[in-house]
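Problem 12. The chain below contains 254 residues. Write out its predicted structure in token notation.
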Amino acid sequence: MALLEIPGDLLGAIVNSKNVAALTGAGVSAESGVPTFRGKEGLWRNFRAEGFATPEELATPEAFERDPKLVWEWYDWRRSLIAPLKPNPGHMSLVGFEKRFEQFTLVTQNVDGLHRLAGSADPVEMHGNIWYTRCVDEGTVRENRETPLPRLPPLCPECGGMVRPHIVWFGESLQPSILERAYKAAEEAEVFFIIGTSAVVQPSASLAGIAKNAGAIVVEINLESTPVTGMVDLSLKGPSGVILPKLLKMIESA
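Solution.
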């Protein structure tokens, strides 16, 4: 396995860090085959939802109130596409980071649950998790991996009320406790990784800047340059599933 070209002093600083954080995005999931749902090549065009032109219109509280069965049909379809997929070497390497560093916080924009499946203990899932439901009446969150779901919309096993996907929809605010954990991770990290994301969507977009301003070494791992490339300390171009295993090997061997 060819090693990465990383300046020795920078590698040494990473190796000796006690507090490390990482932000992951859709690029990490794409390497496991998770499809995108937007754009000309996105799978949205393969899902027929009368009255909704884009996924942004369907993934809203208003759409759920208007037609909960249709919204759940879309999420059930998405779950069926994700269900057979497995974590890739990038996911697994981040589990290795968690074991290697004294303090490691994984923040993700992804909702596919692959970080948890890989073994990450407690990822900060900024936008929720497609494998969890939330009771509309009680607010109780439960894991549900049934695919396909036997009933649409599904009901709460406790109160019989309707449940919704535990996803942050357009027009909704992120949970304060989730935001607090993400900001705290960025503020306290000695090294902050940006992996498989352009990091331009708020509030995730602010995390790299927060880490940088707090004195962290910022490392970007992406297929191509992004708007944050100019401010990072190290930019590694390529698939995260290739780069992260190499980086983990270098850290463990140092």
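Discussion. The first strand starts at residue 19 and ends at 24. Students who got a different answer should revisit the alignment rule from Section 12.3.
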